[in-house]
Amino acid sequence: MWNSECMELIREAHNFNMHNHHYLYSPRTVPRRAFNGKRQRLVRFYSNWQKTRCEYADCIDGDSVQWKLLRGESQDINKVIATPSGFIDLHDPSTCFTYTIHRQQLIKVPSEIELNFNGQYIFFNERIFAFNGDNFRASGTEAASVCSFRLDNRTPKWKSKAPMLHALNTFSVVQFNNKIYVFAGCDADGLSTVTQEFDPGLGEWRLRSPMPGVCEYRAAVVALNDKIFVVGGKERSLFSYEPAKDTWTVLSSTQHAYEYCSATAWKGKILVMGTEHAEEYDVEGDTWIPMDKLVPDDIYCYNVDNFILRTFLI
From the record, what ranges are coiled-coil (predicted)? Predict the structure, then answer.
């Protein structure tokens, strides 16, 4: 009989075979950064007046950061979905490309599947999952619905999954081990503290302990070691959640309030980038320091889905 730890090792080995590195956010591998001499690369997506730019930096020390274009000139991208090895670009509702960071390779996915959900997308185990948001106004909507399809399928089709237990809008999703978690957002009564856990293997949801506070606007979520961190909002919130124990901890507030922000793990710490400010969180010391040098100079955040900060091993 295979236990859960053995199955996780098998999944990690499969991912390494497919992508040439481990899951960056696996609690078993972070912050182990010296695997095969690989180094971390910081990548940011943002929108300016000339569409969407993708830039990278291998070092953020010093007074300024030397950002370089990763994908050439600005791209006309509708939505970006992060994967363990790069990104999926949705240029329109039926055209998508995969981009691999360490190979700098762009490949068109032979798919005519419609990708026009009003919610959040996440890539997990070679599948794209779509979590549909609810505007709490229109009747007959597919509120809280969840669908997925295999990206490597020549003729992919959306397959319906069990809907979220609690309908939300402007929520955040994150993968942790073999589960997907939904945090924050708004429900019909206002700001939500509900925590929802989805098991893609079983296709089942369960409610977990609620967040200890709210996070207005869309929160940034990032997994590091054995915890998930939820950060952002005008409340300057920072909470950590430990799935194994189903417990929450309130941590030091951010230095700035954020309407929209993105977060990523970087060398054992957490970077948070907003449209005007950025900062770095020391997990061990529970302290913040300014990192405004991460913020693009010419940002125009009309598309929140393309405002992304991520770390990759190369």
Answer: none
Assign domain 4-313 to its CATH architecture: 6 Propeller (2.120)
Q: Which residue has the tokens 């669908």?
A: 147
For position 11, what pLDDT does the model report? 56
Percentage of the chain with pLDDT > 70?
Answer: 73
Extract the tokens encoding 235.
């409340």
For the chain, give every domain's residue range.
4-313
What is the model's pTM? Answer: 0.82
- 197: nearest Cα among 142, 238, 246, 130: 246
Among 40-49, 107-116, 190-199, 294-303, the minimum mean pLDDT is found in 107-116
Distance in angstroms (rounded) separating the CA atoms of residues 172 and 230: 9
**Share of the chain residues as helix, strand and coil, in percent rounded to the nearest 5:** 10, 45, 50
